[in-house]
Amino acid sequence: MLAEIITIGDELLIGQVVDTNSAWMGQQLALNGIRLNRKVAVSDNANAIREALSDSGKRAQVVLITGGLGPTKDDITKKTMADYFGMKLRMDADVLSDVEALFKRFNREMTPTNRLQAEVPEGCTVLRNKNGTAPGMWFEKDGVIYVSMPGVPYEMKAMFSDDVIPRLREKFSLPAIYHRTVMTQGIGESWLSDTLEEWEASLQSENIGLAYLPAPGIVRLRLTAYGNKQQELREKINRKIEELPALIGKYIFATDDIPLHEVVGNTLLSLGKTLVTAESCTGGFLAHQITSVAGSSQWFLGSTVTYANETKTGLLDIPQEIIVKNGAVSEEVALRMAENVRKKLNADFAISTTGIAGPSGGTAEKPVGTVWIAVATKDSVKAKLFQFGDNRERNIVRSAQAGMMMLLKTIKGEF
Questions:
Q1: Each residue of 357-366: pLDDT tens digit?
Q2: Number of helices (H) and strands (E), helices first, in the chain?
Q3: Which carries the bigger pLDDT value, residue 106 or residue 233?
Q4: What is the pLDDT, as a whole number, of residue 374?
Q5: CA distances (Å), origin 99, targets 81, 114, 136, 317
Q6: Global pTM?
């Protein structure tokens, strides 16, 4: 069964808004055994919308549309779809009641324009919006289902999960599908592929698909199998994943799609240990990732962003002569940063980063992308040199990822 996604809005085409809806819907479709064939973004133009509906309807059994359902004149999706399906607009009493209740809840006056949100094409199935004013609309024509939903992500997600997927599962006999993701850090996509060549070939005989999903510092391995029985698919994939530690165990930090900072948090929480950071080249990004984990206050005590040499000496008591002799980007400075911040904040572990993020500041001896990262415990402190490249944003992300992976290896006794 094939699905296609149409996102509507000039803001998507000019880069003013990033389309996160399609990525999320793609994940949900895959989890329900529906293959996403194509996604397209079109402008707030009636002809463009009609052409997209016509094209997708020729290829897919389900066409999902988001955006253009607001109350203002530039939101033309509802009127265009009513025209496309040859329907007139009618006032829906239930939707009007929902809109009135929403405005009352927020103690706001409802305008005539807001009232128009309750108008829907007379032949569609209305999907009520629990989180906003724009209802969803379900159309069926020539064996194809078209579903229009709001573009606001949290409104769309609730409607898609609560209404659209259950209706699709009732209407179609969808296959069982099982995904599992192995998370790796510290090995590039091509090196990973070469290392796993024989293992990857063995997946084909069991009809298991493998996708490499790289991001700065991270490569996901997503295994997918389709069939009739969920449990059989689960067991088949899990058996193959059990073979990976012998091949790439030192690079694996999770066997589910969990971010590295969450794995770090879960590990520290389970051990009853605490962490602090001292950051230079990452500028607080490491602490930002850590504190994005709910409940991180139970294991993360704090951070210092010692970006300038003066703050390294003033806040972390690193002697000026060590910085002059070795440079701020050096093993000696990284070691002192980690050791001193751990002691000052009385933590079990500390991570420090110091490097040249770029694009300027590099030398022949220390080019852009040179980063020293250290991890301190109550018993030892160790540092490692990295050469990440010339992209500032990627260097910051990769430094944070590398530091957290070093911490996990330290806890396991592997670093």
A1: 999 999 999 9
A2: 18, 17
A3: 233
A4: 98
A5: 21, 8, 13, 60
A6: 0.77
CATH code for the part of the protein at 2-171: 3.40.980.10
Collapse the DSSP code of 369 into the 3-class scheme (helix H, G, I; strand E, B; otherwise coil) and give the result.
coil
CA 380 – CA 339 distance, rounded (Å): 8
State how far the Cα of 68 lies from the Cα of 10, in Å rounded to an integer: 10
CA separation (Å) from 113 to 71, 119, 198, 294? Answer: 6, 11, 62, 39
The DSSP call for residue 72 is S
> What's the confidence (pLDDT) of residue 226?
87
Q: How deeply is 280 buried, as exposed, middle or buried, from its count of CB atoms within 10 A (0-12, 13-18, 19+)?
A: buried
Residue 368 · residue 355 · CB < 8 Å: no
List Cβ neighbours of 118 (8 Å cut-off, separation of 6 or more): 91, 92, 93, 95, 96, 98, 99, 135
pLDDT at 72: 77
Check if the beta carbon of residue 159 is closer than 8 Å to that of residue 129: yes
* Residue percentage of the chain with pLDDT more than 90: 87
Mean pLDDT score, 177-198:
94
Q: Where are the beta strands (DSSP E) in 156-200?
A: 176-185
Q: Which residue has tokens 């930002």? A: 288
Both tokens of 20, joined, read 């996160």
The domain ranges of the chain are 2-171, 176-254, 260-412
Contact 378, 410 (CB under 8 A): no
DSSP H or E segment with residue 200: helix 197-204
Tell whether the model's pLDDT for residue 104 goes beyond 90: no
Which residues neighbour 354 within 8 Å (Cβ) at sequence distance 6 or greater?
280, 281, 328, 329, 330, 333, 334, 337, 371, 372
Q: 37-96: per-residue pLDDT in tens?
A: 999 999 999 999 999 999 999 999 999 999 998 877 778 999 999 999 999 999 999 999
Per-residue model confidence (pLDDT) at position 130: 87
Q: Kindly report, residue by residue over 330-352, the tens digit of the pLDDT.
A: 999 999 999 999 999 999 999 99
CATH tag for 176-254 (out of 3.20.20.140, 3.30.70.2860, 3.90.190.20, 3.40.50.2300): 3.30.70.2860
Q: Which CATH class, in words, describes the domain spanning 260-412?
A: alpha beta
Rounded CA-CA distance 379/400 in Å is 23
Burial of 166 (0-12, 13-18, 19+ CB in 10 A): exposed
Residue 72, number of CB atoms within 10 A of its CB: 8
